[in-house]
Amino acid sequence: MGEIDLSALIEEERRAEELVKRAEARASEILRRARERAKAIVAELGRVDEEEVRRSELERLDRLLRELEARYRERIEALKSRVASRWDEAVDLIVAYLLGGRPCGRGTRPRS
Amino acid sequence: MRARDEAEVLRVLVEEIRRAAESEASRIVEEAVRKAGSIIEEAKREAESLRARRLEEVRRRVRAEASRKIAAAKMRLRSEYLSAREEVIRSLLDAAIERALRHMSEGSDLYRRGLVNLVVEAATSIDSSRLVVLCNERDRPLLAELAPKIAAEIRARTGRDVSVRVADETIRCMGGVIVCDESGRVYYNNTVEARIESLRRGALTELLRSLGVDV
To answer: Could you say which residues from 16 to 45 on chain A have a Cβ atom under 8 Å away from some Cβ of chain B?
Structure first.
């Protein structure tokens, strides 16, 4: 029985180890680049142009104020229109009240 | 034959070692690629969240800076609305007072009936059988004429027998009456001025609401 030549086997194991080490190094490089890219992403996408935001927020607030102003103007016009539509009846009703209607004041007058 | 078998076994073993190594290497790289993908995705989420926080922070700062301006604008609008409302109410009241004054100066039927109502309304609130009515100089003769009718009206409405006397002294008012008991301590102010004041204090809003007009 002759001896088995294991040198090929040993060589292959060495190559295998190298292959795995290269893979690990590549993996490490992939992760390093990913982390770098991640930092860049956070810095880039997380950036806010304060002046732009300020300008747009002020515009939004101005718009809201203009809308509010318009709503108030509408309310005023609606109020005037409601009263105008029943003006004569309202005046009649007030006259009737002034000239004798509901109670409006009572009390005890102190002696002077 | 044996040497060939040994060589074959070695070849298989070598092959197996190579395959295993290649597989492990692939797994390591694939795992790294997968992790890298996760890192990038996580970074995007973090960036998004960071951006949202920064945006909100800047907006909050701007809103705080602008809050005084906004509050002042709201107050101005509210004040403009109230002024417009006041103006509408004042116009209505002016028109009504003007018409009421015409009725009063003409001694119209409406005012004569109104005077009776004003005294009766006051009388029902004063627990006395002797009532004194104070009015302006213009209305004194009219009330003296209406006094019996007023007493009858009080009796009809309340079942009370009441004497109604128009005071010699007069008061300064547009119209209407002050009714008091004989001592002059308990009184009921039903002058037109008192009724105008009552309208201003809120009765007008109620009156208009009864017409379906909200002010």
So the answer is: 16-17, 19-20, 22-24, 26-28, 30-31, 33-35, 37-39, 41-42, 44-45
Contact criterion met (CB below 8 Å) for B211 and B145: no
Tokens of B105: 């100066």
Closest residue in A to B49 (Cα) is A46
Quick check: B1 pLDDT over 70? Answer: no
DSSP A3: P
CB contact, 8 Å: B95 with chain A?
Answer: yes
Position A80 pLDDT exceeds 50: yes
For residues B207 and B84, what is the distance between their CA atoms, to the nearest angstrom?
19
Provide the ipTM: 0.71
Provide the CB-side half-sphere exposure for B56 (13 A, CA). Answer: 6
Residues 6+ apart with CB under 8 A from B147: B133, B164, B165, B166
**Do residue A98 and residue B47 have CB atoms under 8 angstroms apart?**
no
pLDDT value at residue A104: 41
- The whole model's pTM is what? 0.65
